[in-house]
Amino acid sequence: MKKLKRSARLVEMTQYLLFRPHTLIPLTTFADRYSSAKSSISEDLAIIKEVFEEEGLGELQTLAGAAGGVKFIPKVSKANSLRFIEQICRQLEQPERILPGGYLYMSDIMGQPMILNEVGKMFASVFAGKDIDVVMTVETKGIPLAYATATYLNLPVVIVRRDNKVTEGSAVSINYVSGSNKRIQTMSLSRRALKEESKVLIIDDFMRVGGTIHGMMDLLQEFKATVKGVGVFVESGEVEEHLIEDYISLAKLSAVDPKTRQVTAEPGNYFTDNDSDEE
């Protein structure tokens, strides 16, 4: 790369870091890339670090030593997250979203890249301090959200299927009880998709009782994997007890009345529980 002016170099370095979260980048990478001295690169990184932290974009960690470098950790403050989720709650409360059976239409929200991007960043911020190997979800609506989260954590995504796909080779399949309708359903995961003893973050778009997530946990036992966290975009508050206890939710449907067409949504337990994770 040609030698850049400092202002241009700062812009390019910032972009380079933003597109490589949770990746250790040696100072020599930047020094060689911009044909600049390490002392100049260090000064540039100090400026970027200050802006990242002041503007709430994340942290720029510095590791000293021969094998050291810098690592960008995306972060979003709980206050900024709350303001965003409150806007989502107002959208969820629109009466025209109520579907037959008391279900709520959310596909338009889940189809907006900006919303998925922000929610993924929130989950990445919540679970940034966990030792995680992969992000897992079940097809289909949770897939975009899992990829958004994995992007900010710089991790691969593993997708649990509702049935076994021939193109994925041999798979492990289990039966589980759907929490919403108590029906026996099947989910499967290709043996090649997940290494044994992996550390997994489960992400899902909606949780009513938690039967699907509980099923994924049972499936992970077949791989001797460890669940390091569970993130749910929207949870239902109209159930007496969830099948899982340790999870983080960003929004909560506290009431859905098909007769009056009234929906009440509020921030999830990430904002209301004092012991919710915030690294």
Keywords:
single chain; 279 residues; alpha/beta; Arc Repressor Mutant, subunit A; Rossmann fold; 2 domains; six-stranded mixed β-sheet; two-stranded antiparallel ribbon; 9 helices; 10 strands; 25% strand; globular; DNA-binding
Write up what this structure looks like.
The protein has 279 residues and is an alpha/beta fold. It has helices at residues 6-18, 27-34, 38-54, 78-92, 107-110, 113-126, 143-153, 211-221, 269-272, and strands at 58-63, 69-74, 134-138, 157-160, 171-177, 184-190, 199-207, 226-236, 248-257, 262-267. It has two domains: 6-74, Orthogonal Bundle (Arc Repressor Mutant, subunit A), CATH 1.10.10.10; 78-272, Rossmann fold, CATH 3.40.50.2020. It has nine helices and ten strands. Strands 4-3-7-8-9-10 form a six-stranded mixed sheet, sandwiched between helices. Strands 1-2 form a two-stranded antiparallel sheet. The chain has a two-stranded antiparallel ribbon with strand order 5-6. The longest helix is centred in the first third of the chain and has 17 residues, at 38-54. The chain is globular and about 65 Å long. The two termini are 36 Å apart. The mean pLDDT is 92. Residues 112-250 form the Phosphoribosyltransferase domain. Residues 5-74 form the Bacterial purine repressor N-terminal domain.
